[in-house]
């Protein structure tokens, strides 16, 4: 890797993903105090931002296996149906996420079973006070968005321990092996992420994924470009965009006028009817003057393919940051927002 701005060590944190997942599995397997499957009617996952992606991963990977609903909530509100037979899984790296703390407090008041994944903070304190299940995350990870494995894997392992899903250990082992191969290509400088960065250049990435798995990968890709490269990026999913957004690309040249660079994220678990939709979208975008960059996930199992697409997106965002002379770590504008919100809270509490 050439010298580049990276004050928080985001590059090495990105390449630590397979090891991070392995460590998280070992730690999560020691968890005690989880409810029985027979006592749970629904699962809710609370979280925001780099922590909240853990809930999306759970929905994409565990959701298709589960015979009860799993709902991801990102915001201050706790779903009205939450009660004593609800397992509320809470993901907050810092333990201080304002929205998440408010939602989990409401869930506790309604008698829900709570399981928290965090480094500490107020969430860890509340969890101990409530005598709820808690998984401690390594606080030396430089940023919440670098902890995608450490935040999501304990949730999947917990569902396996409870008996709501099965076979997750095999998926995790294969994901780690797939990610190690991806990391080797990144370190050698031969990974597809470099090609993607060349395609994007100074353009605005528009990332499309298929189904829930592809949607999660596309959202993560977009968010990482926002936070690491400090650039605008957008995403959508198929088949939904085929019923609305696609109509916006019908005018020849509009994509070039807007400097939009379309990217297709593909995986083996797409519904069979998505392939012709992707083909049509690529033809439409190409006719409009754009070149579509297609990325296909490596690995066999759903978790492997999702994490492979995640790592490709993460590395692309690091490379884009370097291209534009950005330090991928600090996110000053988000810190400024939190400071302003904190000042307003302090004034209102005074």
What is the distance, rounded to the nearest whole angstrom, between the alpha carbons of the first and last residues?
50 Å
Mean pLDDT: 95
Q: Largest sheet, if any?
A: 5 strands, parallel
Number of domains: 2
Q: What's the helical proportion of residues? A: 40-55%
Alpha-beta classification: alpha/beta
Low-confidence stretches: 345-350
Binned strand content: 5-15%
CATH topology name of the largest domain, in short, is Rossmann fold
Q: What is the architecture of the largest domain at the second tier of CATH?
A: 3-Layer(aba) Sandwich
Number of DSSP helices? 13
Task: Compute the number of strand runs.
Answer: 9
Gross geometry: globular
- With strands numbered from the N-terminus, the spatial order across the biggest sheet is 2-1-3-4-5
Give a description of the structure.
Helix 9 links the parallel strand 6 and strand 7 (234-238). The protein folds into two domains: 31-166, Glucose-6-phosphate isomerase like protein, domain 1 (Rossmann fold), CATH 3.40.50; 192-323, 3-Layer(aba) Sandwich (Rossmann fold), CATH 3.40.50.10490. The model is unreliable at 345-350 (pLDDT under 50). The termini are far apart. With 350 residues, the chain is α/β, with parallel strands linked by helices. It is built from 13 helices and nine strands. The strands form two sheets. It has a five-stranded parallel beta sheet with strand order 2-1-3-4-5, with helices on both faces. Strands 7-6-8-9 form a four-stranded parallel beta sheet.
């Amino acid at each position: 890797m050439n010298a580049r701005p990276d004050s928080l060590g985001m590059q090495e944190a990105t390449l630590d993903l397979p090891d991070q997942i392995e460590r998280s599995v070992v730690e999560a397997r020691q968890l005690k105090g989880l409810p029985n499957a027979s006592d749970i009617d629904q699962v809710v996952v609370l979280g925001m931002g780099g922590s909240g992606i853990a809930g999306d991963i759970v929905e994409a990977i565990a959701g298709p296996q589960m015979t009860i609903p799993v709902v991801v909530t990102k915001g201050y509100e706790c779903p009205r149906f939450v009660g004593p037979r609800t397992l509320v899984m809470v993901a907050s790296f810092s333990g201080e996420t304002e929205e998440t703390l408010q939602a989990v407090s409401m869930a506790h008041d309604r008698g829900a079973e709570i399981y928290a994944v965090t480094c500490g903070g107020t969430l860890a304190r509340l969890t101990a006070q409530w005598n709820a299940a808690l998984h401690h995350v390594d606080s030396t990870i430089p940023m919440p968005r670098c902890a995608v494995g450490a935040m999501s894997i304990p949730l999947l392992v917990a569902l396996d321990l409870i008996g709501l899903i099965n076979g997750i250990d095999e998926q995790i082992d294969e994901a780690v092996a797939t990610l190690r191969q991806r990391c080797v290509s990144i370190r050698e400088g031969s990974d597809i992420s470099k090609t993607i960065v060349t395609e994007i250049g100074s353009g605005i990435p528009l990332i499309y994924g298929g189904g829930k798995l592809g949607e999660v990968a596309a959202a993560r890709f977009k968010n990482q470009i926002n936070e690491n490269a400090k650039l605008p990026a957008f995403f959508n999913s198929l088949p939904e965009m085929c019923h609305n957004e696609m109509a916006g690309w019908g005018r020849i040249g509009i994509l070039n006028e807007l400097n939009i660079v379309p990217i297709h994220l593909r995986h083996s678990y797409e519904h069979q009817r998505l392939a012709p939709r992707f083909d049509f979208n690529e033809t439409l975008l190409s006719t409009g003057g754009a070149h579509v960059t297609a990325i296909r996930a490596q690995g066999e199992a759903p978790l492997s393919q999702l994490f492979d697409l995640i790592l490709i997106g993460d590395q692309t965002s690091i490379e884009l940051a370097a291209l534009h002379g950005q330090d991928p770590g600090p996110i000053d504008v988000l810190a400024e927002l939190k400071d302003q919100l904190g000042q307003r809270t302090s004034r209102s509490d005074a």
